[in-house]
Amino acid sequence: MRRMVSALTLVVMLCAPANAALLLNYNSDNTDTNAMPVQSADSGLSVSPMTRGAGLGATLGHSIDSFSSTLRAQVTNLTQALSGNRFVRWTVTPLPGRAVSYSNLTFYFFLPEKESGGIVYWSPYISFFSDAIGFTQPDMIGQIDMDVQPGQPTSLGPFAFDLSGVSALQNVTSPTEFRLYYHSKYATHEVVSNRPNFYEPLGIGTANGGTNALNALFMEGLVVPEPAVLGLAGICLVMFCRRAVR
Fold first, then answer.
1. Confidence of residue 194 (pLDDT cuts 50, 70, 90)
2. Domain that holds residue 39
């Protein structure tokens, strides 16, 4: 009887819901690189560095506390951002026998403040996609309207996407790529009266170090044994219980 109780207790523990935990964290502090390595990750996951799409240029040596990029052409709608590969991306792969459910994505963003006197910096939209759904406009998981006002600090956030209701991101056992696309909400942006070819950087992280750089982007959720493994464990436990009763 004790063996049966112990086995049933184990089944309950395996199947019981758990609170979301930190899955991965990117740290942009002192990041002067073309690929930002992950700072920490759940032991059941393999996480790639964060990289830029071909439509974003690097701004190495500037804004060292953010994973910076620059847009050298007007990108004023999501269609242009998608076709022009104007994104940052990372990939999360559960280890064999593991499944991950995503609950939240949080990040900080850096861009120059909007000013008057001949300088108007663009206010971007940040659009979130994953290959678990697709990279076409109807597949967008969420979008943030970052309307920067004069005098605002250059480091903004935290911004968050709730992923708990996205069914394609629950109990995932295969590699999943995530992308944040950048585009402007205004047709006239990055206008500098005396420097028409000047472009300020923007990126994931912060301009002044500190917590925003240390937690430039992080995801929360839960890593558990994949359903097939739990099913097999349940069958084995049932057989064990039947033998114990005999």
1. very low
2. 19-224
Q: What's the confidence (pLDDT) of residue 60? A: 74
3 domain-assigned: no
- Percent of the chain having pLDDT more than 70? 67
Tally the domains of the chain: 1
Q: What is the CATH number of the domain that holds 33?
A: 2.60.120
pLDDT computed for residue 139 by the predictor: 98
Could you tell me the two tokens for 186?
A: 């205004």
Q: How far is the first Cα of the chain from the last one, in angstroms, to the nearest whole number?
A: 11
Give ∠ CA 232-238-239 in degrees, rounded to 5.
90
pTM: 0.81
pLDDT tens, position by position, 213-237: 888 999 999 999 987 544 444 444 4
What is the spatial distance between Cα 224 and Cα 171, in angstroms, rounded to a whole number?
8
* Helices then strands, each counted (H, E), the chain: 4, 16
Say if CB 92 and CB 131 are below 8 A apart: no
